[in-house]
Design a protein that fits this description.
Elements: E1 5-12, H1 19-31, E2 36-41, H2 56-67, E3 73-76, H3 88-98, E4 102-109, H4 110-115, H5 122-128, E5 131-135, H6 144-150, E6 158-160, H7 170-179, H8 189-198
Parallel strand pairs: 1-2, 1-4, 2-3, 4-5, 5-6
Helix pairs in contact: 2-8, 3-5
């Protein structure tokens, strides 16, 4: 019997990439039996048009620095190599063409699961993915029964990822840097050094 191959799909702006991102990807590989995690950098996300996002080149450099020493981590250029808008559904469909026969598990946090009904064609996205790997938090406010009404069948596609609670967010890190507060230990060392060297996010040193 042929063994099923599973890849995780981890999309985001990663502005900046931090330790909680790496924690989710690492635990997903272990708990969901993934061969690898495909990191999909979104250059210009449709739902974040209201704020300025750091350049794609710097975010890609941070991603390469943070994932380069982990063989199971692979950066996908699927969104970088195509014009916007970059919807998750289109990303998954393109990856299914690129990796035929591979089961794709879309990795998200509990906050994204809560907002899933507002995504572009969420029912079609749920149908395209084998499952959603979700790192839940006590305050994410997800009501699965309500979610099931909006996206029928989603309940059976949710795979919980258990991991230590790291209260880290990219928005908080950006605010800390701009305000001159400590931020070093929220980030991989290479990413921290890059932010300081390039004086990103208003870093003044």
């Amino acid at each position: 019997m042929e063994r099923l191959i599973r890849y995780g799909v981890f999309g985001g702006t990663f502005d900046p990439l931090h330790l909680a991102h790496l924690e989710l990807a690492s635990e997903a590989i272990h708990q969901l039996n993934l061969e690898r995690v495909l990191w999909v950098l979104t250059p210009d996300p449709p739902h974040k048009q209201e704020r300025i996002i750091n350049s794609m080149e710097y975010r890609l450099e941070m991603l390469r620095i943070a994932t380069g020493d982990t063989p199971e981590f692979q950066i996908s250029m699927v969104d970088i190599d195509r014009p916007p808008p970059h919807y998750a559904l289109d990303t998954v469909c393109l990856l299914k063409e690129e990796y035929p026969g591979v089961e794709l598990i879309y990795l998200i946090g509990g906050d994204s699961l809560h907002d899933l009904p507002t995504w572009h064609k969420p029912r079609e996205l749920a149908a395209a993915c084998r499952a959603f790997g979700v790192m839940r938090r006590p305050a994410d406010g997800v009501d699965i029964s309500t979610l099931e009404i909006s996206i029928p069948g989603i309940t059976s596609k949710i795979l919980d990822i258990q991991a230590p609670l790291l209260e880290i967010s990219s928005s908080d890190i950006r605010m800390r840097i701009a305000e001159g507060r400590p931020f070093r230990y929220f980030l991989p060392p290479g990413v921290y050094n890059l932010i300081r060297a390039r004086r990103l996010y208003g870093y003044k040193g």
